[in-house]
């Protein structure tokens, strides 16, 4: 694939992810929140299956767009789900962030090992299995929150404001765009300099090490200190 195609493949996911944030903004009740979460998972899962099955560039591009839309829908809903599932929201949000960081540390290294032992395409099978697991766990979450009235507003959900929505989208687009540029630019420059795959994997994992450590420390901090932190 050409350099232009590879860039399009990378950024199509990011653009779709930002677009996917819009419907999650209007998750006003636990029922709507969990329904949207499962919808996002279905789109993400469909994209993963297409990614595994497709060999043509436009098939891969379509798969990444589907995955981006799905991730954009369900990712922002996770904090809201945690807030309606647990009373100690701050602690469990820190646990979630710590888990996310740990996965981001392990994943690049595990993928390099998988690519050396098997075809890289086989790693998509793990994404499919995890998506299916999350779909059914969301069903259990539905049972937990079903005791609440359907009119109950999701804790911490934003006011219905297009100005607020646009400000969130711009912030995410700018920050995520910068992070994506670093994720793409730094490894590519290292690769041009003759870096090995293992070195590139370590390079990708290193920022998440500090992220994971800080998130774990936050989980040990009393919630009264969170505003100051």
Task: Explain the overall architecture.
The chain has 229 residues and is mostly helical. The protein has helices spanning 3-24, 30-53, 57-74, 77-85, 89-117, 123-145, 162-192, 197-219. The protein is globular and about 50 Å long. The termini are far apart.
Could you outline the blueprint of secondary structure elements for this entry?
Layout: H1 3-24, H2 30-53, H3 57-74, H4 77-85, H5 89-117, H6 123-145, H7 162-192, H8 197-219
Helix pairs in contact: 1-3, 1-7, 2-3, 2-4, 2-6, 4-5, 5-8, 7-8
**Shape field:** globular
Summarize the amount of helix as a percent range. Answer: over 70%
CA-atom Rg in angstroms:
19 Å
Distance between the termini: 46 Å
What keyword list fits this structure?
mainly alpha; 78% helix; single chain; globular; 229 residues; 8 helices
What is the compact description of this entry?
By secondary structure, the chain is mainly α. The protein is built from eight helices and no strands. Helix content is 78%, strand content 0%.
